[in-house]
Amino acid sequence: xVSKHEFYKDYMDSILLIDDDIAYCELISRYLNIEGFNVTxxxxxxxxxxxxIAQEFDLIIxxxxxxxxxxxxxxxxxxERKENS
Length: 85
What we know:
The chain is of the alpha/beta class. The protein is built from four helices and three strands; from the N terminus they run H-E-H-E-H-E-H. It has a three-stranded parallel sheet with strand order 2-1-3.
């Protein structure tokens, strides 16, 4: 059987996970690592924003209820910064 990563490897490899729930991040990143994805985990919005603008990621998994800022607002900031760079 072909793994999901083998199927998607031409399309995505690196994933940024931004969520304040540490246990959730550990679970999701462990599963994605097993599937062969490179996962970067950030547990704070500021750190996630900095990573998102400093590196290229194929996918961002973003909590919409972060304590510091809404995930929707964070996504808007990331998009605005990426479009203007």
